[in-house]
Amino acid sequence: MKPYKSFNSMEEARRLLGDGFWDIMSDLFPLVGPRVDMYRDEKELIVVIELPGITSAEAVNLSIQSYTLIVEGHIERQYVQNEEKLLINERFSGPFKRSISIPKDCAVDTIRADYYNGVLIVRVPFLTNQTIRQNEKVQIHFHS
Question: Where are the beta strands (DSSP E) in the chain?
Fold first, then answer.
């Protein structure tokens, strides 16, 4: 019998198995990390990301790589002093990283991001003539 490899954290598992593995398995396992809704209207793509507990713009990073929106950061539960005393533990906390594919008709050079009351709202207009900027960090407008 072969010894099995155990992971010390979800971050280690994600690094070793790759993001593609988690995309495929997302229908089988509960989602670890922020929940996302994405929709389009006539003018733009809107991505809504739940990020409760973020208290500053430095706690979350948003970037674009080709047509993939990447949001990463760390959610802390400020009120928990001792994890062993939690009777119900359903809310996500800890480091997270989500990669979200966006349609090719998006103007990735004109993204706007706003954070309100635990929700990050990312707006990407639709344009036909655009320049694709690789690996660009997106500024988040933080509203408290």
Answer: 36-40, 44-50, 60-65, 68-75, 94-101, 112-116, 119-125, 136-138, 140-143
